[in-house]
Write the structure tokens for this entry.
Amino acid sequence: MGILEDVLLNARTAVDTVGKKAGKVIDMSKLTLSAADIKSELSKKYEMLGRITFEAQTTDKDYSKSTADIVAKIINLKAELESVNEAIANGKSRSKCSECGSYNDKGAIFCNKCGTRIVVKDVNADEEIAEEDAVDLVEDNLDDDDMGI
Ligand SMILES: [Zn+2]
């Protein structure tokens, strides 16, 4: 019984961790690359899951533990992919639809998926905070220069 519940609990913890990490990632090329990596990893896991399911159906062995493991990994990978995609979309300054959650080009008035009017609540809040930090850093540096003169 408990196995699947444990697996789901672990997966949720991983989702939180991934979500927190994604907010800080800026390097777009790296993100695009890792999205591709995650996708290929996902297909491998799905293939593995299929193979195990096949084995379980055709033999008497108990594969429930392995199945639960792979399912947990797939859940983690999917969460990771979602965070990465979101980070990519944020980096491209796109507007997120408040209704269906899909991303639209910046300046779009209606969601290209569900047609909801886009409320510009901006998905770049994290970036703006980062910019403020950058300004603080610059000001700190200027202070140092003043001291030197
Ligand atoms: Zn929408």
Observations:
- The chain has a mean pLDDT of 74.
- Residues 97, 99-100, 102, 111, 113-114, 116 surround zinc ion (CB under 6 Å).
